[in-house]
Amino acid sequence: MPDEISMEGGCSCRTVRYRxxxxxxFVNCCHCSWCxxxxxxxxxxNAMVEVDRIVLLSGAPVTxxxxxASGRGQKVARCAQCQVALWSHYSGAGPRIAFLRTGTLDxxxxxxxxxxxxxxxxxxxxxxxxxxxxxxxxxxxxxTWPAVSLERFRAARSRPDG
Length: 162
Fold this sequence. Notes:
Radius of gyration: 15 Å
CATH superfamily: glutathione-dependent formaldehyde- activating enzyme (gfa)
């Protein structure tokens, strides 16, 4: 398996624990005002990964339907006990791709952002690092993601529902 890894993570109360078995497809640092409100922070770090590369070790997240800026909503997987958001599913990516919150990983620093998005609404005191792409809104996935990530994404989306 390309990009095979083994890294664990989970919620604050440790009820839900998971193992990530592959490196993320791509990591977005989203600065949109919607993510700011939803997380209560300046931005959110989402590591996109195939759901079959997330192995539950304990607990069972509950899925909460929430609105989104697109109007199509998102499904947020949270711990039923402490309510920490572990990952989301956005309609544009489909149910087989998880937007894993990198802060829930035991070693979140291993996956820095590949791109900063929606920087037009970035808080003015956030300083973006040099050398990391940054765009005012969203970006062209096909032109930005590595070829191997695009192929993994296509393969995940083409799998039959299980």
